UniProtKB/TrEMBL annotation:
Lineage of the organism: Bacteria, Pseudomonadati, Pseudomonadota, Alphaproteobacteria, Rhodospirillales
Domain KaiC: 2-239, 241-473
Protein name, as recorded: non-specific serine/threonine protein kinase
Domain RecA family profile: 239-280
Residue spans crossing the bilayer: none
PANTHER family referenced in this protein's UniProt entry, alphabetically: CIRCADIAN CLOCK OSCILLATOR PROTEIN KAIC 1, PTHR42926
Length: 491
């Protein structure tokens, strides 16, 4: 079946090539969901391809349509605009035995079909069916007129997109059976932050399409659709080599480093050094010639760059040279689908080999459906693993010292887990590091001290004389503190 491009590449991807030609399609959604903007792009795409477009409006004036297009930097020149004002005032109700609504609806439908027959357009938009439903006042009469419109369009070689704002829920789903395709738009209002828009293909006869909900955003001059990720459709051949962290002791702890195509989770309370450890891996990848991407939900660029300078691993030059991509992800403005799409663009367009997500806690706060988010994150991690990417997730635990709880189940989301903890010893608050899980090989079972210095970081010796380090309150079993020499410095 021949298809028409909609002017929105990602929507065409979801539709597996676009809208079927010479058919009647329904675009439905509440007011403000983006129907008019999508319909305009549909006609503008036809204009770019030399096709004739017709916009029939029953709800907005042509001036309002022109203003809406201008807000996106578009012009509707070359597209016929038919402002169909309700003709109720023109009807002489005293001279007819028919119901006024029946006369008005029939005359309105005649004007629509006559204009289409006169212009012979390739693409038609009718905005909106809600006005016709109000004129009809009767569901049966309204359905018959829509069926008559469908029959009148047959054989005219035009593809028609009709809009419906769902203001009348009574019988709104009954139109689905008359349509060749149905695209549903939805706008979700959050308790705080930007509204979230998403769409789904509810129906598309005779063609394949990607089912499910897909987030989308309307920006000045564009509609961006973020197709939901299906990890099984994306795979790449790669060697499961190991990437060094640049610190021998840390590599020994990890059994050699991080393996490509795996996910490593850095877990610990706030301030334990998770982000600093991620920076160490990022800079090691950049020095090895790989492209890396850092997605930060929590920190601003200035804070992170100052941290990197303090550790002696300045990220400014790699970012300016394009070897390292840094993106600020605002959980109150970003939809989960858009975030997944941003990660995919780094991997597919920039060939990122290392991806850091800081942090998983903030990602899970992007919307209240936490279970769905975890499944979506699992699909993203599977995709990254299939692409041979080293993924580093940062997860902040609840609590500081003592009982520290994990907000999510780590068992199926990671191939390796690095645990950072605080503990008390010698009148000081210290940090420990250990690897509690690694699927791709053998790792050390030791618990080591972890320190951050102005010129870098250090993984110290095993804490052999302490018991209960992971609880935060260890018991010293030795005769002399092996961590501190006579001058109070780490030995």
């Amino acid at each position: 079946m021949k298809k028409l491009l909609t002017g929105i590449p990602e929507l065409d991807f979801v539709l597996r090539g676009g809208l079927p030609c010479h058919r009647l399609h329904l675009l439905e959604g509440a007011p403000g969901a983006g129907k008019t903007t999508i319909a305009m792009q549909f006609l503008l795409e036809g204009r770019e391809r030399g096709e004739k477009g017709l916009y029939i409006t029953l709800s907005e004036s042509t001036d309002e349509l022109q203003a809406a297009a201008a807000s996106h930097g578009w012009t509707l020149d070359g597209i016929d605009l038919f402002d169909l004002i309700p003709i109720e005032a023109e009807l002489d109700r005293q001279q007819t035995v028919l119901y006024p609504s029946e006369v008005e609806l029939g005359e309105t439908m005649r004007l629509i079909t006559d204009r289409i027959a006169e212009d012979q357009p390739d693409r038609v938009v009718i905005d909106s069916l809600s006005e016709l439903r109000l004129i009809a006042q009767d569901q049966l009469r309204y359905r018959r007129q829509i069926l008559a419109l469908k029959q009148a369009l047959q054989g005219r070689d035009c593809t028609t997109l009709v809009l419906d704002d769902l203001t009348s829920h009574v019988g709104s789903k009954e139109l689905h059976s008359l349509m060749h395709g149905v695209i549903s738009l939805e706008m979700i209002e959050r308790s705080y932050g930007a509204s979230r828009r998403r769409l789904r293909i509810a129906k598309m006869r005779g063609t394949d399409y990607q089912s499910g909900w897909h987030d989308f955003a309307i920006t000045p001059g564009d509609v961006l659709v973020f197709p939901s990720l299906i990890a099984e459709e994306h795979g790449a051949e790669f060697e499961p080599t190991t990437m060094s962290s640049g610190l021998k002791e840390l590599d020994d702890l990890l059994g050699g480093g991080l393996t490509r195509g795996t996910t490593t989770m850095l877990v610990g309370p706030s301030g334990a050094g998770k982000s600093s450890l991620a920076l160490q891996f990022i800079m090691s990848a950049v020095r090895a010639g790989d492209h890396a991407a850092y997605f930060s939900f929590d920190e601003t660029y200035n804070t992170l760059s100052r941290r990197s300078v303090a550790l002696g691993i300045d990220i400014t030059e790699p970012i300016e040279s394009g070897k390292l991509s840094w993106r600020r992800a605002n959980p109150s403005r970003l939809s989960p689908g858009e975030f997944v799409w941003q990660v995919r663009r780094e991997v597919e367009d920039n060939q990122a080999r290392v991806v850091v997500i800081d942090s998983l806690n903030s990602y899970l706060s992007t919307m209240p459906e936490e279970n769905a988010l975890i499944l979506q994150m699992h699909e993203l991690l599977t995709y990254l693993n299939n692409q041979g990417v080293i993924t580093i997730l940062i997860l902040a635990q609840q609590g500081i010292i003592g009982d520290v709880e994990n907000p999510v189940d780590l068992s199926f989301m990671s191939d390796a887990v690095v645990l950072l903890r605080f503990f008390e010893a010698g009148g000081e608050v210290r940090k420990s590091i250990s690897v509690v899980k690694r699927r791709t090989g053998i790792h050390e079972l030791a618990i080591r001290e972890f320190q951050l210095f102005p010129n870098g970081m250090r993984v110290g010796p095993r804490l052999l004389d302490f018991q209960g380090v992971l609880t935060g309150v260890p018991t010293y079993r030795g005769t002399l503190d092996p961590l501190v020499d006579g001058e109070g410095e780490i030995d």
